[in-house]
Amino acid sequence: MIQVGDKLPGGKLFEYIEVEGNGCSLGPNAFDVAQSVAGKTIAIFGLPGAFTPTCSAQHAPGYIAQAEAFKAAGVDEIWCVSVNDAFVMGAWGRELGAQGKVRMMADGSAEFAKALGLTLDLSARGLGLRAGRFSMLVKDGVVTQLNDEKGGGYAVSDADTLLKQVRG
């Protein structure tokens, strides 16, 4: 499992782009994780699934609501990572009003979650392997804060907790 001080693993995440431009075509676009975090401070939170109760009512909305506070504290971007496809993440982001606040990053095959060691097996509930619930702060590719729920709870990966850590 990834730890504070570790370099974020490489790989690709996908994001649904609503408007063509800046080198991105309309629809799902792949982003290299290492290139995307280089020289930036990124708040990343992972959750089991788009449109699921806790994720939709609390986890993602907290980061969307606090986006300006994160920016003011020096965070360049906020990423929501979930084991869903880019189309689903795009639709969920539209519903939540995440545009311009939180990048809705798809990890469709759970490759990134597996590389982090932050997975949650929800096969018994018909959901398969998912990202566990977590949050982290990444500076220039290195994890400086990590909050792992170690299962499906929601106690330490919320926006307020990570924002307090960012502010020091």
Explain this structure.
- The protein is an alpha+beta fold and 168 residues long.
- The protein has a single domain, classed as 3-Layer(aba) Sandwich (Glutaredoxin), CATH 3.40.30.
- Helices cover 30% and strands 30% of the residues.
- The protein has a 7-stranded mixed β-sheet with strand order 2-1-5-4-3-8-9.
- The longest helix has 13 residues, at 53-65.
- Pfam families: Redoxin.
- Residues 2-168 form the Thioredoxin domain.
- Thiol-specific peroxidase that catalyzes the reduction of hydrogen peroxide and organic hydroperoxides to water and alcohols, respectively. Plays a role in cell protection against oxidative stress by detoxifying peroxides.
- Its EC number is 1.11.1.27.
- Belongs to the peroxiredoxin family. Prx5 subfamily.
Could you outline the blueprint of secondary structure elements for this entry?
Layout: E1 12-17, E2 27-32, H1 33-37, E3 41-47, H2 53-65, H3 67-72, E4 77-82, H4 86-96, E5 103-106, H5 111-116, E6 119-122, E7 128-131, E8 134-139, E9 142-148, H6 159-167
Parallel strand pairs: 3-4, 4-5
Antiparallel strand pairs: 1-2, 1-5, 3-8, 6-7, 8-9
